[in-house]
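thought: fold this chain, then report.
action: predict
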Amino acid sequence: LYVSSDAPDTDFTAKLLDVYPEGDSREILMLDSIRRVKTRLGYDKVAPLLTGPQDIVQLEIDLQSVSWIFNTGHKIALDISSSNYPRFDINPNTGADFAAADGEKRVAQNTVHVDAAHPSALVLPVRPAP
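observation:
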């Protein structure tokens, strides 16, 4: 993903879904994960905090792997958000590691960029039908 935010640090979450055909509002969560912007260069070092919405950075949300056969008429959906609470802890969006009960928290205005210069994408291997 190519992302930006007006907060110094924030999270981006991804959910990979199997969506039932139209007229049926069901969906199955296949995989989900999260990436904190300040860990975009790896979990062993802190990347520079963002200075404003003009900072567009690239990050990868690794959804690991799954083997899935989609029924006829089903669709693949990818939901991108900046929170998946309570599954993942709240990000205070300040650069702090954790949201303390009495600590500063802020709302982040986040953007996922999708254009020629910022080709955000979902990469899925597909096995052809036999």
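thought: worth noting. The chain has a mean pLDDT of 94.
final: tokens above.
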